[in-house]
Amino acid sequence: MGMAPFPERLNEQVAHEFAASQQYVAIAVWFDAETLPLLAAHFYRQALEERNHAMMMVQYLLDADAAVAIPGVEAPQTEFADVVAPVALALDQEKRVTAQIADLVKLAREEGELVGEQFLHWFLQEQREEVSSMSALLHVVERSRDNVMLVEDFLARESGGENPLEAGAPPAAGGAL
Fold this sequence. Notes:
Blueprint: H1 5-33, H2 37-63, H3 84-110, H4 114-143, H5 149-158, H6 164-167
Helix pairs in contact: 1-2, 1-3, 2-5, 3-4
Protein backbone atom coordinates (compact mmCIF):
# COMPACT_ATOMS: atom_id res chain seq x y z
CA MET A 1 0.00 0.00 0.00
CA GLY A 2 1.59 3.29 -1.12
CA MET A 3 1.06 6.75 0.23
CA ALA A 4 -2.30 8.46 -0.12
CA PRO A 5 -2.34 10.57 -3.27
CA PHE A 6 -2.13 13.97 -1.52
CA PRO A 7 1.09 13.34 0.47
CA GLU A 8 2.53 11.59 -2.57
CA ARG A 9 1.80 14.56 -4.82
CA LEU A 10 3.09 17.00 -2.19
CA ASN A 11 6.36 15.04 -2.19
CA GLU A 12 6.46 15.50 -5.98
CA GLN A 13 5.96 19.23 -5.45
CA VAL A 14 8.93 19.26 -3.06
CA ALA A 15 10.98 17.99 -6.01
CA HIS A 16 9.60 20.75 -8.26
CA GLU A 17 10.46 23.42 -5.68
CA PHE A 18 14.03 22.12 -5.27
CA ALA A 19 14.41 22.01 -9.07
CA ALA A 20 13.17 25.61 -9.27
CA SER A 21 15.68 26.59 -6.59
CA GLN A 22 18.54 24.99 -8.55
CA GLN A 23 17.40 26.69 -11.76
CA TYR A 24 17.48 30.05 -9.98
CA VAL A 25 20.98 29.36 -8.66
CA ALA A 26 22.07 28.63 -12.25
CA ILE A 27 20.46 31.86 -13.50
CA ALA A 28 22.04 33.85 -10.66
CA VAL A 29 25.48 32.41 -11.43
CA TRP A 30 25.05 33.27 -15.12
CA PHE A 31 24.18 36.89 -14.28
CA ASP A 32 27.06 36.98 -11.79
CA ALA A 33 29.49 35.85 -14.49
CA GLU A 34 28.09 38.61 -16.73
CA THR A 35 28.88 41.14 -13.93
CA LEU A 36 25.23 42.02 -13.35
CA PRO A 37 25.29 41.89 -9.54
CA LEU A 38 21.73 43.05 -8.87
CA LEU A 39 20.18 40.58 -11.31
CA ALA A 40 22.41 37.91 -9.76
CA ALA A 41 21.35 38.89 -6.22
CA HIS A 42 17.69 38.88 -7.27
CA PHE A 43 17.95 35.27 -8.47
CA TYR A 44 20.09 34.10 -5.53
CA ARG A 45 17.25 35.41 -3.33
CA GLN A 46 14.66 33.63 -5.48
CA ALA A 47 16.66 30.41 -5.20
CA LEU A 48 16.56 30.61 -1.40
CA GLU A 49 12.84 31.37 -1.48
CA GLU A 50 12.11 28.27 -3.59
CA ARG A 51 14.28 26.12 -1.33
CA ASN A 52 12.31 27.48 1.61
CA HIS A 53 9.04 26.57 -0.11
CA ALA A 54 10.31 23.01 -0.45
CA MET A 55 11.20 22.97 3.24
CA MET A 56 7.75 24.30 4.22
CA MET A 57 6.24 21.35 2.35
CA VAL A 58 8.69 18.98 4.07
CA GLN A 59 7.60 20.39 7.45
CA TYR A 60 3.95 19.93 6.55
CA LEU A 61 4.59 16.28 5.62
CA LEU A 62 6.51 15.75 8.88
CA ASP A 63 3.67 17.34 10.88
CA ALA A 64 1.13 15.17 9.02
CA ASP A 65 3.17 12.08 9.92
CA ALA A 66 3.55 11.33 6.19
CA ALA A 67 6.62 9.83 4.55
CA VAL A 68 9.08 12.39 3.15
CA ALA A 69 11.25 11.55 0.15
CA ILE A 70 13.98 14.13 -0.44
CA PRO A 71 14.47 14.09 -4.22
CA GLY A 72 17.37 14.34 -6.58
CA VAL A 73 16.68 16.90 -9.30
CA GLU A 74 17.62 17.18 -12.95
CA ALA A 75 20.44 19.56 -13.81
CA PRO A 76 19.18 23.07 -14.59
CA GLN A 77 19.80 25.04 -17.76
CA THR A 78 23.07 26.95 -17.34
CA GLU A 79 23.66 28.58 -20.75
CA PHE A 80 21.59 31.46 -22.08
CA ALA A 81 21.60 33.30 -25.41
CA ASP A 82 21.13 36.77 -23.91
CA VAL A 83 19.92 38.60 -20.78
CA VAL A 84 16.25 38.10 -21.67
CA ALA A 85 16.38 34.29 -21.91
CA PRO A 86 16.94 33.48 -18.20
CA VAL A 87 14.14 35.82 -17.10
CA ALA A 88 11.76 34.33 -19.69
CA LEU A 89 12.68 30.85 -18.40
CA ALA A 90 12.04 32.02 -14.83
CA LEU A 91 8.58 33.36 -15.74
CA ASP A 92 7.68 30.06 -17.46
CA GLN A 93 8.85 28.22 -14.35
CA GLU A 94 6.68 30.39 -12.05
CA LYS A 95 3.63 29.83 -14.26
CA ARG A 96 4.27 26.08 -14.23
CA VAL A 97 4.63 26.00 -10.43
CA THR A 98 1.41 28.04 -10.10
CA ALA A 99 -0.45 25.41 -12.16
CA GLN A 100 1.10 22.62 -10.06
CA ILE A 101 -0.01 24.27 -6.80
CA ALA A 102 -3.52 24.85 -8.18
CA ASP A 103 -3.74 21.14 -9.11
CA LEU A 104 -2.63 20.20 -5.59
CA VAL A 105 -5.34 22.43 -4.10
CA LYS A 106 -7.94 20.69 -6.28
CA LEU A 107 -6.63 17.27 -5.22
CA ALA A 108 -6.70 18.25 -1.53
CA ARG A 109 -10.29 19.45 -1.96
CA GLU A 110 -11.35 16.23 -3.74
CA GLU A 111 -9.78 14.13 -0.99
CA GLY A 112 -11.30 16.22 1.80
CA GLU A 113 -7.75 17.13 2.92
CA LEU A 114 -8.92 20.44 4.39
CA VAL A 115 -5.76 21.05 6.41
CA GLY A 116 -3.66 20.44 3.32
CA GLU A 117 -5.85 22.73 1.25
CA GLN A 118 -5.56 25.49 3.84
CA PHE A 119 -1.77 25.04 3.95
CA LEU A 120 -1.61 25.49 0.17
CA HIS A 121 -3.61 28.74 0.11
CA TRP A 122 -0.51 30.67 1.16
CA PHE A 123 1.36 29.22 -1.82
CA LEU A 124 -1.42 30.32 -4.21
CA GLN A 125 -1.05 33.92 -3.01
CA GLU A 126 2.72 33.68 -3.11
CA GLN A 127 2.64 32.35 -6.69
CA ARG A 128 0.35 35.16 -7.84
CA GLU A 129 2.90 37.64 -6.50
CA GLU A 130 5.85 35.72 -8.03
CA VAL A 131 4.29 35.55 -11.51
CA SER A 132 3.40 39.23 -11.36
CA SER A 133 6.88 40.42 -10.29
CA MET A 134 8.71 38.08 -12.71
CA SER A 135 6.44 39.26 -15.52
CA ALA A 136 7.31 42.89 -14.67
CA LEU A 137 11.03 42.06 -14.62
CA LEU A 138 10.72 40.36 -18.02
CA HIS A 139 9.11 43.51 -19.48
CA VAL A 140 11.93 45.64 -18.11
CA VAL A 141 14.64 43.29 -19.42
CA GLU A 142 13.01 43.08 -22.85
CA ARG A 143 12.83 46.89 -23.09
CA SER A 144 16.41 47.31 -21.86
CA ARG A 145 18.14 44.38 -23.58
CA ASP A 146 20.50 46.80 -25.37
CA ASN A 147 21.39 48.60 -22.16
CA VAL A 148 21.14 46.06 -19.38
CA MET A 149 22.50 48.54 -16.83
CA LEU A 150 19.00 50.07 -16.90
CA VAL A 151 17.75 46.75 -15.48
CA GLU A 152 20.31 47.00 -12.70
CA ASP A 153 19.05 50.56 -11.99
CA PHE A 154 15.45 49.29 -11.94
CA LEU A 155 16.36 46.58 -9.43
CA ALA A 156 18.28 49.04 -7.28
CA ARG A 157 15.12 51.16 -7.03
CA GLU A 158 12.68 48.28 -6.62
CA SER A 159 14.51 46.05 -4.15
CA GLY A 160 14.05 46.24 -0.43
CA GLY A 161 10.77 46.12 1.39
CA GLU A 162 9.62 42.94 3.05
CA ASN A 163 7.10 40.75 1.30
CA PRO A 164 4.01 41.05 3.56
CA LEU A 165 3.16 37.43 2.74
CA GLU A 166 6.31 36.24 4.53
CA ALA A 167 4.81 37.19 7.90
CA GLY A 168 2.10 34.56 7.47
CA ALA A 169 4.31 31.93 5.84
CA PRO A 170 4.06 28.30 6.96
CA PRO A 171 6.97 26.99 9.07
CA ALA A 172 9.90 25.49 7.17
CA ALA A 173 11.79 22.37 8.25
CA GLY A 174 15.08 23.48 9.81
CA GLY A 175 13.72 27.01 10.25
CA ALA A 176 13.40 29.59 7.48
CA LEU A 177 16.76 30.85 6.24
